[in-house]
Amino acid sequence: MRQAEAGATWVPSVHKDDGPLYLAVANAIGADIASGRLRAGDRLPPHRTLAESLGVDFTTISRAYKEAGRRGFVEGRVGQGTYIRAQSSGRLQPASGIVDMSMNMPPRFGNADLVERIWRDVASIQRGDGLELLLRYQEAGGSAGDRNAGAAWLAALLPEVVPERVLVAPGAQGALMATVGHLARAGDTILAEELTYPGFRALAQYLGLRVRPLAMDGQGILPDAFEAACAEDKPKALYCTPTLHNPTTATMGPERRLQIVEIARRFGVPIIEDDAYGMLPRQPIAPLAALAPELVYYISSLSKCLSPALRVAYIVAPNARAVAPLASNIRASTSIASPLTAAVATRWIETGTASNILKATRQETSERHRLLSRHLTTAISDPEAFHAWLPLTGPWDRHSFTAKLRSVGIGVVASDAFAVAEAPEAVRLGLGSVASREDLEVSLKTIAQILDQAPSFGGMVV
């Protein structure tokens, strides 16, 4: 009875700018279940009572309770009211199931006309070279048409690029394999940010390379750290992500980029620029490859700006001599990029569909970042990034925090996945992998509430 009485006084914290109020109330029920404020058996206020408390109409609360019931949060008991249901395994039950924020991928947009255009472009391939794409191999490094499309796509960032220096690779990992294999051998040293892309860490380990971490600040690599490493280690290359760095979202400013390029030139160190997120900013900063085209191996994947499923990336070689060895490495390691998916990418670029997908992705990213700014103010992010970096400065460490989130159905990535040296107390949140804004809002509210709690072990608060 005590629980039921406690639930009867529940009033959620919702605002009119949270979107449809009935969804905001349903989301608040889910978040308060996850945080422990509401428990199984609690009786929620009657529809009319809660409507009066929130200053909304009766219908809004009816819709909210119905939505909460659809998600499995509540159950109606005839003649008794609305009660919180027991949650299986203590997991959060958002609108579309368990929330996985561990993947870093573009958010799904809801533009029906654009979706129809996407599939129309895919279908048009069948009427052209579809059978040839299905039944024939192509040359490593991509067909002339695909390389032309790659150069056209990259022209917004690299206006001087020519198709002859562009190669098509099977995703960023395939591009990295070809490029790193061209520049280094087992036992060699490559420099990287102290927090770096996990795929690069795995590749370096596979190839037997030593990775020396470089200290960072809010703009990425510190020039002094880069210069000292060049002088001491004679590295074979620098690997870095200057724009919307993964996981911290740091972006190098123009002056910092010039400093990094000057040091690399002075020591003769090639740069592998992973520009996976370079297309996302509306007003981008010139890539390192635009500042030192003779020094930089530039990699741009379509996974983060168009579609993770395409597995298409472009390598821009620093000179004509590097093209053949890179193509040979692609052939030796991954054979070719799928001709069919490369053709889809080319068709989207040629018809303008790719630009429209990018625009829709930017718009949805902005909406999701707005939710992040509202509910999780301690997170570090960029308005044009669909991931965020959450330092843990309170009682939580990264392992207990990720375990707690997992127990309520939210997956995040601890800093260990990115750390070349000692891992900080932090986690990365993927804003784009969550199916809907409603689910994302539930998750962000839950994360914020758990941050304010003390960790508990065996039922004891410590």
UniProtKB/TrEMBL annotation:
PROSITE patterns per the UniProt record, alphabetical: HTH_GNTR (PS50949)
Residue ranges of domain HTH gntR-type in the record: 19-87
GO molecular function: DNA binding; DNA-binding transcription factor activity; pyridoxal phosphate binding
Matches recorded under CDD domains: AAT_like (cd00609), WHTH_GntR (cd07377)
SMART domains in the cross-refs: HTH_GNTR
Gene3D superfamilies: Type I PLP-dependent aspartate aminotransferase-like (Major domain), Winged helix-like DNA-binding domain superfamily/Winged helix DNA-binding domain
Keyword line: DNA-binding, Pyridoxal phosphate, Transcription, Transcription regulation
InterPro entries, A to Z: Aminotransferase_I/II_large, HTH_trans_reg/aminotransferase, PyrdxlP-dep_Trfase, PyrdxlP-dep_Trfase_major, Tscrpt_reg_HTH_GntR, WH-like_DNA-bd_sf, WH_DNA-bd_sf
Family, similarity comment: In the C-terminal section; belongs to the class-I pyridoxal-phosphate-dependent aminotransferase family.
The protein, known as: GntR family transcriptional regulator
Species in which this protein is naturally found: Devosia epidermidihirudinis
